[in-house]
Amino acid sequence: MMEDENIPEWSYGEAGRFVPEALTSGQREQLLNSKDKIFPRKFTQEEKNALLDAVETGLSINADAKEHLTKGGTALDHNATLTDLLKSLAAAKQKLKRLNGRPLDYVDKAFVEGRTPFQFDGSGYLPPFNMSLTSSYGYQVDSLLLKTWLHLTDLEKVVTRATENIHVDQTWRPSDHTHDTLVNHLIEVWVEKYGKYPPPSRTGWFAKFIFELGEVIGENFGLDMAGRCIRKRKEIYAYLLDVKLAHGKVQAATE
Q1: Is residue 52 a contact partner of residue 217, using CB atoms and an 8 Å limit?
Q2: How far is CA 55 from CA 58, 69, 203, 209, 237, in A?
Q3: pLDDT tens profile 131-172
Q4: Which of 83, 79, 73 lies closest to 167, judged by CA?
Q5: What is the DSSP letter of 136?
Q6: Model confidence pLDDT, tens digit, residues 61-94
Q7: CB of 75 closer than 8 Å to CB of 163
Q8: Sign of dihedral through CA atoms 189, 195, 197, 199?
Q9: Tell me, what DSSP letter sits at residue 22?
Q10: How sure is the predictor about 244, in pLDDT bands with cuts at 50, 70 and 90?
């Protein structure tokens, strides 16, 4: 008799980890005293420090992103994993649909045996086996098959939505990821606070800020980086909006 398999432990992606003194006091002072107009013209000292505080948080997230890129793969890898899972779920449902006739009779008999402590087969007692969720089923195997079908269908829906939430950029390079993580965080902070994007131009203050920040912390942030990240962010939000609208149309059509 097959023994129960050990229930797997599902581990989620790790949360961002704190990196103490990600931006040193000397680096902060260097950025505050920059002569290259890397802050908005009317920014107060308090506002400048608030942006540098966001850099601190962004560098912590950036360090975590580097670790995840090494251990967890890229968005393309994640999408492939979920797509493969969807194929397996669809295949399992197809096999359930084909369970008819005598094979189903045998499965139903085994199901009944699973609900009974001992079964006599004419030559002796068969060893008992226990199902994990016996109390949630009826007295025929149809109840188990129906719940299994519905669970597989729900999981298909969840995984499908998960794949829709992954934006796969075919031009994306792994080397872009950790740099983009920091810049995207700063863009997000700015949008949340001011309700608009920072200027995308390579001659604007934001591009200059990102460029000089890279020089100060020893990273190669080009002047085009700010504009590229803003453009990609807008593309992702447009993509997610299209998905949301498409789901809304489907839901309206089925109501």
Answers
A1: no
A2: 5, 20, 20, 11, 23
A3: 888 888 888 889 999 999 999 999 999 999 998 877 665 555
A4: 79
A5: G
A6: 777 666 655 555 677 788 899 999 999 999 999 9
A7: no
A8: negative
A9: S
A10: low
